[in-house]
Amino acid sequence: MPAKTSFLSILLILISLLGVFPLDVILPSVPQMAEYFAVDTKRIAYSVSLFALGVALSQAVIGPLSDCVGRKRLLIAGLLVGIAGAIGCIRTTHYETFMVFRLLQAMGCGCFVLSQALVQDSYSGQQRNAMRILLTSASGVFIALSPLAGSVLQQYWGWQGSFQVFVMLAVLVLLLCLMLLGEDRASRYRGGFLPGYCQILKDRKFLVYSIFSCLAFACHFSFVVVSPLLLMGPLGLTEFAFSMVFLLYGLAYMVGGVVANSLNRSMSTQAQIGCGFALIGTAGVALHLAISSGELVLIDLVLPLTLCTIGTTIVRPAATTYALSRHPDRAGAAASVSNTLLYACGGGVSLLVASSGEVSLAMHLAVSFIASCLSGWLLLACVSGLFGHKP
With 70 as the cut, is the pLDDT of residue 358 above it? Predict the structure, then answer.
């Protein structure tokens, strides 16, 4: 069914696009949101970290539950909750209520974890790998363009624009889900999701490789959270200049994907992970030296971030692919555990970095890169001793 497969690919790409709106597209609007709610910009940045933690909690339930009751119903329910949360964010005039609706939106967006399970269910062999590569590339493009899109939406629709477009896209995805997705293989998991969840959590290999991905993602997400504070604060960039920097950041994400594909053909999984962490550590040291040498300028930030991004996109696909391959029959639960750890780690680390003062933001970012590298290498050194072989 080539036509249906093509529409399913479009659905998965749209889910990937939908995922950037609550995090990346709103970034240029952070100063305006702070002004609207009469709070410090740091408190708006906290909403991004809160969103990540909310997604993590939601995914912890949605993924394994989908193995029991099916993907379609939970995806539709999650979209409806996300739409309700976004509409609440648009309508509210108080910061505290806004944060409540952001958390509600995050709980709905936890259903996006099911895109990985849908790939596992709907594709096989090389086609499955090709689809994951396509989604990774699409994600890089969306991340690259999202701040520019956010700047345009901010200019014409105000800060509410990103939430309004989120609602429109979510409705489109909802309609495609109703048309394309059938009732899936829930009967295999009628024994309940907790036993399968426990089995995954007991798998040390799965957990270790998921942690590799978490460490790399924490670097990426920490920059995403503090970027408006750092770039439009001490560095004084305009919204448009900010979007151009993020465009370069997203392009580095895409370059990292190309490099990762090349390394995948010639290196073991552990070698790829080690190489990626080396780049992340180099980025941290370079940023630390730039800060220590005097006043930070834009190029001092862009070059280390490019290295870190390439390193992150080498580590994450290699680590995630190996981790999820451990439990192909529990795709929902495995993706849920992996992504819950991912967002919990990213949200927690970014919250710590964002809590520092504007003067020390860049230094804390550099320290997080170095800490991620050292932790990754230390864990990598333990892997052979724990498991006795290299995958």
Answer: no
